[in-house]
Amino acid sequence: MRPILKSNKLDDVCYEIRGPAMEKARQMEEEGHKIIKLNIGNLAVFGFDPPDEIVHDMIRNMHGAAGYTDSKGMFAPRKAVMHYTQEKNISGVTIEDIYLGNGASELIVMAMNGLLNNGDEVLVPAPDYPLWTAAVSLSGGNPVHYICDEQAGWMPDVEDMRRKITSNTKAIVVINPNNPTGALYPREVLLDIIELARQHQLIVLADEIYDKTLYDEEEHVSMASLADDVLFITLNGLSKNYRACGYRAGWMVVSGEKRHAKDYIDGLNMLASMRLCANAPGQFAIQTALGGYQSINDLVGPGGRLLKQRDLAHKLLTDIPGVTCVKPKAALYMFPRLDPVMYPIADDQQFACELLSEEKVLIVQGTGFNWIAPDHFRLVFLPNSDDLSDACGRIARFLDGYRRRHGRG
């Protein structure tokens, strides 16, 4: 019989966070091995529960969740998001500028589908959260990766952005706070990017899903609060700040220079209608979450579990010979660098699989985040301190063996 092939639109689409190493880990678990999974920011499996009031409000409202909602979402949670944009100093946002989605991920794909024609280009950071690159490719566009500079604390290289803008460039993606590096961008950097967008009439797509997961009393500045003459698409949700990944409750806000974007906004409205609506139970969680006690502050503040685990993971990793890591100011991840002289890695996916086989620790290789060289990996620091110490100890043991095997011991 003739083979049934996947669409060629998927040729340039990958999502290594759930890639081959994850499949290998699944097989090993079926064989009875216990795997320490440091590959995904899935908070619930590490004992980070959503606030009780969110759970209780969802349960109380479940009787009203059976029908379709407005295609953009229910009024009350969209109103709560509107108030949140006001808290973030984003001006001019109305209820009609807000779209609720099945997580921010669905809305990222919607924003790209509505914007791109074949051959259009979007500037995407390297390293990036790979859904962005995949969404651009799947929408017929070409992702063009601009460098974030590790030597500058993983700040975006604005001059590299400038060099890569062409007549086909439609938008710039900014992930702030950043996944996978944990970098948090200051106002000055954001203003430089906005000026670039202004000069070239580009849309700014701002992924701000970790905007409350901040350490060391850092503050997050929403890009859309810094200008009103550029079109901004801001994405956020409950997955990370409120430990509610499975609720699939996210939102997208259109702000700034909307007057010349009517046709694009009509396209977004069409796409929102085509998927009928976001899941209703998740929508019921949004108003309670945004208006309730912000328990994330207890986790990231002095004595908080996330803060302690960040500090522990950073120390344990950087104590390993040849491993350096910019200490994250935000989010749930580290993106350490392996000295290529001490660790001559040719294929970092194979490197990750070897670590998994030998030490039962699952990480994601750096090239899975569209990084340019096989010299980084990402891990989450969500396990409790004992498990995190165990995992980092296993990584240290594996790296010691790797150095010896390659004559670098």
TrEMBL record:
CDD domains given in the database record: AAT_like
Keyword field: Aminotransferase, Pyridoxal phosphate, Transferase
EC number(s) from the headed UniProt entry: 2.6.1.2
Record domain Aminotransferase class I/classII large: where: 34-395
Necessary cofactors: pyridoxal 5'-phosphate
Keyword Transferase tagged: yes
InterPro entries: Ala_Aminotransferase, Aminotransferase_I/II_large, PyrdxlP-dep_Trfase, PyrdxlP-dep_Trfase_major, PyrdxlP-dep_Trfase_small
Domain of life: Bacteria
Any one GO molecular-function label of the UniProt entry: L-alanine:2-oxoglutarate aminotransferase activity
The family this protein is said to belong to: Belongs to the class-I pyridoxal-phosphate-dependent aminotransferase family.
Annotated PANTHER family: GLUTAMATE-PYRUVATE AMINOTRANSFERASE ALAA
The protein's name in its UniProt record: alanine transaminase
Natural source organism: Massilia polaris
